[in-house]
Design goal:
This protein has about 200 residues and is of the alpha+beta class. The protein has helices spanning about 5-25, 40-50, 70-80, 125-130, 140-145, 165, 170-185, and strands spanning about 30-35, 60-65, 90, 105-110, 115-125, 145-150. The chain is about 40% helix and about 15% strand. Helix 1 packs across helix 3 (about 70-80).
């Protein structure tokens, strides 16, 4: 993942620009943000789900925040016209919200480069609930934050390095050590565990 990060970053920014242009052409006002999953978060998800790296559809993501629910579905249709979508990755949490009240459309498409791209589409009200309301799960979000990319006026927003890019891999090592400790009754340790 570290080796592919620059390529993934370029692909997700190019895809976001394409999505923004298509939504604008369709008359849908949207603010977009992008995310590249950190290697530590990808490893954690693979271990939790027993998945392989190629099974993850959300290594890169674009979030579109739109005005209303009708625009959510119109944006989904627009995105599905851009690239082939992956039916197994589609979830309609607007029609069927999660138990905590979370609402959003989730889909994934296959980019021309071959990488999958996750898209989340929601309204501003749904976004506020997901970020700070009952549906918020902050610990996960801190490691996998979407970064603003384009405003609804089409003007680029300032980019900053994601928090995961500013950390070393110490947190992954600590996570691995904690897991081994639990599986060996607290006897786990590893070389290279750089606690700070």
């Amino acid at each position: 993942l570290d080796h592919e990060h620059p390529h993934r970053a370029q692909h997700v920014h190019d895809a976001a620009a394409t999505v923004h242009s298509a939504l604008t052409a369709a008359g849908i006002r949207a603010e977009l943000s992008v995310r590249i999953k950190s290697p530590c978060s990808a490893q954690d998800k693979m271990l939790r789900q027993g998945a392989r790296l190629n099974d993850l559809h959300d290594l890169c993501g674009v979030r579109a925040i739109v005005e209303d629910v009708a625009d959510c579905y119109a944006a989904l249709e627009t995105v599905h016209r851009l690239w082939p979508h992956l039916p197994e990755a589609f979830d309609d949490y607007i029609a069927s919200p999660k138990e905590n009240g979370y609402q959003s459309l989730h889909t994934a498409v296959r980019l021309p480069c071959g990488h999958p791209l996750e898209l989340q589409i929601r309204t501003w009200e749904q976004h506020r609930n997901a970020e700070t309301g009952t549906a918020a799960h902050r610990r996960y979000k801190q490691a996998n934050s979407f970064l603003p990319l384009l405003s609804d006026s089409g003007m680029p927003l300032p980019r900053r390095a994601p928090p995961a890019a500013r950390r070393d891999m110490g947190s992954c090592r600590r996570l691995d050590v904690e897991r081994r400790g639990r599986s060996t009754g607290g006897q786990g340790h590893a070389t290279g565990d750089h606690r700070r």
